[in-house]
Design a protein that fits this description.
Length: 268
């Protein structure tokens, strides 16, 4: 059971992720980084074998995703105290990850890419993250046009949660995510962050992933410190607005930020 607000640390086992591509393909380095994130305050580790970055991410077949992930999952076995999630849109990858102990499926397509995903999540009893995006991992920035982004995203996530429940996933296992940076401009991201109380009003825990994304670089600045402080500011404000999980590359900074925000809001 995860205590909210919680920090989700990102472990990308990919050659092309936007901020850390290629760094953790080696199972030894992946283990080291996962343990380091756990020690610095991650409550969940999110492991992914396919990049979904906004520009130029290459689709990866399930076999290739598993070829990257399996050595890392085997190496992590027994070393993590905290639960971990699998960041994938493919049921075959999620199935193998669940067999290796994944407690949660983080699906950036909200169970819409692979028709077997909802059934698998229902059968396994794992938690699911339903994220809003449009288009595919390869072309989603072409679809960053909304009459009202808050209404569109809130309506979509409410509908996907109903779909998940109809498929047999228990409501208590559903987490929703506005998908910051996925088919969204800087203005869309800011509007969604400002509207987090409305999203929380749907009744599911809300996950927010702003870490190191382009709009942070545009607003806070391009240096590593500016990007980290910019990320921490959004984490604190997201938790102050009711978010339950922040997905980050630097769990230590996020933990400090969300602890302050939770204390100031009287959330423990
Ligand atoms: N963002 C990314 C990937 N997965 N999952 C959820 N639920 N929410 C997010 O905001 C989210 C996500 C993109 O970040 P990253 O994992 O660092 O990059 P990449 O997709 O290039 O591996």
């Amino acid at each position: 059971m995860i205590h909210f607000p919680a920090v989700m640390g990102v472990l990308n086992v990919t050659p092309d992720s936007f901020s850390d591509g290629g760094k953790y393909l080696d199972p030894g380095r992946a283990l080291e980084h996962a343990v380091e994130m756990q020690e610095s305050g991650a409550d969940i580790i999110d492991i992914g074998g396919e990049s979904s970055r906004p520009v130029g991410a290459r689709a990866v077949p399930a076999a290739e995703e598993l070829r990257r992930l399996l050595p890392v999952l085997r190496r992590l076995d027994g070393h993590l105290r905290v639960p971990w999630s699998i960041d994938t849109r493919k049921a075959e990858v999620a199935r193998v990850a669940i067999e290796h102990g994944a407690a949660m499926v983080n699906d950036v397509t909200a169970l819409s890419y692979d028709s077997s995903m909802a059934r698998l999540a229902a059968r396994s009893g794992s938690a699911v993250v339903l994220m809003h995006m449009r288009g595919s991992a390869e072309d989603h920035m072409r679809y960053a046009r909304y009459r009202n982004v808050v209404i569109a995203v809130t309506g979509y996530l409410a509908a996907r949660a109903r779909f998940a429940i109809r498929a047999g996933i228990h409501a208590s296992r559903i987490i929703i995510d506005p998908g910051i940076g996925f088919a969204k401009t800087t203005q869309h991201n800011l509007a969604l962050l400002a509207a987090l109380p409305a999203l929380c009003g749907l009744g599911y825990p809300v996950l927010v992933g702003t870490s190191r994304k382009t709009f942070i670089r545009r607003i806070a600045g391009e240096s590593p410190r500016e990007i980290e402080f910019g990320t921490a500011a959004t984490d604190a404000l997201a938790v102050a607005a009711g978010a339950s999980i922040v997905r980050v590359h630097d769990p230590g900074a996020a933990r400090a930020a969300i602890r302050m925000a939770a204390a100031m809001k009287g959330r423990d």
